[in-house]
Amino acid sequence: MESRKSAKKAPQKDKPARNGKLTLCGTTFSVLPLYLFTLAFVLAPLIYMFVLSFMQRGGSWGVEMSLSFDNYLRITEPVYLGTFTESIKLALLCTLFVALLGYPFGYFMARLSPLWRQRVMLLLIVPFWTSSLMRLYGWIIFFRANGTLDHALMGIGLTQGPLRLLYSYPAVVTGMVYALLPFMAYSVYASAEKLDRSLVEASRNLGASALRAFFSVSFPLTMPGLFSGIVLTFIPSMGLFFIADILGGSKVVLVGNLIQEQLMRAHDWPFAAALSVCLMALTSIFLFLYSRLTRALGSGGELEGLV
Amino acid sequence: MNRQHNSIRVSVENFSRQALGAFFRAEPEKTGLSAPIQRILLCKIRKDFRFYPLRGKSQALCAFFLAAALVLFLFSGCSKREKTAAGNPQGSGAETASAGGTLTIFTWAEMFPPEVLKSFEKDTGYKINMVNFDENETMLTKLETSGGSGYDLIIADDYIIETVIEKGLAQKLKPDKIPNFGNINPVYQSQFYDPSNEYTIPYGAGVQTIVYNPGIVNINIQGFTELWDPRLKNNLAVVANPRVVTGMALKTLGYSYNTEDVGAIREAGSILLSLAPNIRLIRDDKLDDEILSGEVAAALMYTSDATNAKIENPGLKVVFPREGVGFGIMAGFIPSRAANEEAAHAFFTYILDPQRGAQCFEFLGYYSTYAASDNLISEKYREFLTLPEGIGEMEMMDNISPEAEEAHSIVWTAFKAAAGHK
User: How many CB pairs under 8 A join A and B?
Assistant: First the structure.
């Protein structure tokens, strides 16, 4: 009630400031629900998680209220630290492959005729209509011993026996790249679509080779897309534990796997919370360093569609 | 203000352009849509995304009402969901008590043959409301939240039932309401989770067996020890249960599955590291697919998968490890504040019937826990669904101390990582 009154009063106060004040008022009210939503469903769980990470497990189930740093100390166990380095390694590797494949994809997609652009976009979107788990099982059928790939290869006489590609590190990387490629392709596309072709033409007219024109005009101008694509790939790939489980046969242990296991198997919620807090801190540090890096590289810290 | 509006407008337009694609901006002849239709669509989009700058009072009022509506919607949505999630079973329980009969069963998917459920409804007049969970842990969390209400009958794994009973979330059965209680095979009774059989009726049991394909590996596997054989390099699958896999190493060393001696668990961990090169796959379900396709030559798996594998390929060998056999029991209990315990008792009595029990276990693919049903299981399945003679020592996995649990967790993580880095 009170807020409504103030909204009513505001316009009558003084005319010059009227517009500005009104907008402020309008903005406050229209943003309020989202604000409350974020507080209730994002901030509150985060606080809960943070507090939980200082408690102790209570026997075989539940949580004991006692404040200690034990959970964080346990993370320093080499085995657990190993999962963090493993996660970062895999995330970097995936991001590299996704960038190598996704950048040209998005770049050339933007140069297609509008009709083909629609078709390619549709092809990229269609797989999202089925559950990602379903699609991963598709990869299992494809990779499995005596499966589709083996049959095809043996059929044309390239291999003699099953290749046994499933449940290996390359299989996990393939799955991750497959799952994350669209994010890169789209963000590069968004950048490349805005690229003013006349600039490229100008550089060509001035005698630059196609390669030179690409590296001195097109590439720098599409960097924001590439950079945001990298963020959109790197962050999720730290947490896609089910891909590592399904395609890697649970042999690739990422922090995500460890957290899931602590929650569901060991019933050690506080330790899982501590791991999550560390993972979040780690990704935040990465994001911070990355934004510094992109700024230094001259994209002005601009991330296509993200900032 | 203008600038702000413009920027919003630009971003909204950007959004419309990017999200809906260049489709509508494309030349009509290229999109394949007729020009008028495209024009209409285009107008619609422009209209939808146009920013109507409201003036003065109306703007503030409009913003306020929209915000209020959103907030209300949000919270009404919340309370509604709460009702359906936690309260619904409760509510339906209350409704049904007066209507005389819904039985809410909470268990995994595909635990009962649909015919049996249907005939139960027909014979007793109760209506079954089947609610599923994926993991025992989810079940306990929900049951804890609702304080033991919401469900009339729950079937879950042994170790979680121990916690349920400890927390007082289960009620004692009324033996006089289950006249055929004696059909239960005593082997599956008086276990750690319910020592005096006051709370639970077992429904299916599983053992961990080694299944291998003698056509691929020429090893005579008799127990866990042979799994360390270098000829099985990259050819072994195990279940994704740390207690079972580390337990296997513990057994080879002569310890119990349930040892709480951290030193013993670490020792088991070190010999597990030497098993790592043989490990191709760690997963809980569908290991039968892997052994049938030839992805692995040997696997430590649960009963239902072993049964499937053996039925599909009779050439496979199923081994009960000589070091000892680990087993688990699924059991049903009635939550402490069940709305319709009458129906739950009726259901127990119904499936304890020897014939129906046999039908259930054939469907379930786990060991029959009702001695009276054993001989009624069809020839095809009997050998897989009843406990073999001379199976040797059997041991269940209890809940262990937090320290032992932490040691297991370290050993397990190290083992998985070692299996990945070979």
Answer: 157
